[in-house]
């Protein structure tokens, strides 16, 4: 039984075809992976914004229902929290000693910037303002200046 050298292994053409097929598959998969990663981050951003905005609304509703007041509500704040940390630390409930109402467990991380630093807007600010008056927190936005898959800026969400 004589073995021939030609019959062992792969030929150069077979290797070339395999590499070409792998290159084509990789060129299709990479853009899809990038898009799905960006879509995931956008979903996380929407969730974080909704969580903070819901907590701000709950705080405001508690002020209107007179569940919190006195020293915890600053005059001229329109019933909105003075900062995001107040939503985490909580405020004293009216008529209850050492009983705090908390609205957030923690400040969510902005998935676009990787920090807990959010852009803040006061009730007195313009809806598209990027500067905070410092009196209260009426709305939050990401500080990322990137664009979403749909072409909108993350700042406008």
Short account of what is shown:
The chain has 157 residues and is mostly helical.
Largest sheet descriptor: 2 strands, antiparallel
Radius of gyration computed on alpha carbons: 27 Å
Helix content: 25-40%
Task: Summarize the helix and strand pattern as letters.
Answer: HHEEEE
- Tell me the structural class: mainly alpha
Which outline best applies? elongated
Number of domains: 1
Summarize the structure in words:
The protein is mainly alpha-helical and 157 residues long. The chain has one domain (11-156). It is built from two helices and four strands. The protein has helices at residues 12-64, 84-89; strands spanning 91-92, 100-101, 119-121, 139-141. Strand 1 and strand 2 (100-101) form a beta hairpin. The N and C termini lie far apart (75 Å).
Question: Notable features of this structure?
Answer:
single chain, 157 residues, mainly alpha, two-stranded antiparallel ribbon
What order do the helices and strands come in, and which of them pair?
Blueprint: H1 12-64, H2 84-89, E1 91-92, E2 100-101, E3 119-121, E4 139-141
Antiparallel strand pairs: 1-2, 3-4
